[in-house]
Amino acid sequence: APTWLVGDGSLPGRFGVYPFVALLFQLVAMAMGGTLSLQLAQNIMGEGATTSASLHGVPLLVTLAGLVVLFLASRAHARRQVRRGARPGGFRIWLTALITGVVLAALAVGLSILLAGRGTLAISIISLEYRFDAVDLQLALFPLIAGTLVAGWGRQCAAGAEDGLIAGTVRSLAPGLGTAVRLCGRYAGGVALAGLVGLTVLAFVHHSPATGLATLFFGLTAVVEVMALGHLSGLTAQTTARLGYQQDTAYIWSGAIQQYTGLWPMLIWVAIGVGILWLALSWSRRRPRTAMATSWFAMPLAFLLLGLALQWAGTVRFADNGFVLQGFYGLAPAWWTPVCLLGWGIVVELLARFVAPLLGRRRKRRVERQASAPV
């Protein structure tokens, strides 16, 4: 038999190439919200036993890279249509985006099922059958929802279509919501980048270059959790191990956090403070000038969406049925994180309406005094 199937005693040789290729596809499925499940069927001298484990954790860099590629591809396709003279309306744009989301979800689920890892490994008197995949409900929902929104956003940016029924309704209920979401996204991206760089430097200095490099690629989930803590929410740990169900919530100032990380996570407050100030000034200049009471809703709603995104992206779950760490273990931002972020959105709205104009007028008067001062 070929050595790439039978192997020469090395790990890839023992398992073959296919399981490692399958694992790459399942990691991509995890980036789309899937939960990696592993089932092992052991046969030791005629006696069988089955164990299983599952892991839910989103490789966020892969997720972000995929969404950026989808946005760029959708925008490029829409620009190509515009150059050909086509001017699709808002309904057609979002219908096409929905089809894109459906196709993306079908491909994600189909490839994860088709390329599920499976095989048999014989070691002495032990025969081990294994299977792993990342198929679950989220693997269908996340590509459908995120794919539709990102594809529609990319097409609308390029086509410049007029508002459809949905966009017009949203604009009337929360004027400026699109601008608020874009500014909030830049704020979150800046804070996350600062946190990721800081976490990578700490890992590089206090541990090793390899740890720093691993943190750079896989530490974004930890950064999301630190962002939730930095916005004064909590981090909830759950376990159903042999001691029974336990749930604990810690905050950035809690001893449980400082025991493992020290005071370093509090540095995120610097990035948050600078970001909130920039966001308030930017929103003060760009928010719609309207007397509608619903104009107060845009920035709080944008922060509410950010809170939901933090709670989803920062969730890590591990379930074990038959291995050494038997039980369920979970770590996620506290359930009230979206409500907490909603409060931050209200703070930004107040700063943009009442504080930022005062700062702008003071700066304008200072510039005028400097211009009128005798040389």
Automatic annotation (TrEMBL):
Keyword match Transit peptide: no
Transmembrane residue ranges: 20-41, 53-73, 93-116, 187-205, 212-232, 263-281, 293-314, 334-356
Key words of the record: Membrane, Transmembrane, Transmembrane helix
UniProt-recorded name of the protein: Uncharacterized protein
Organism: Rothia santali
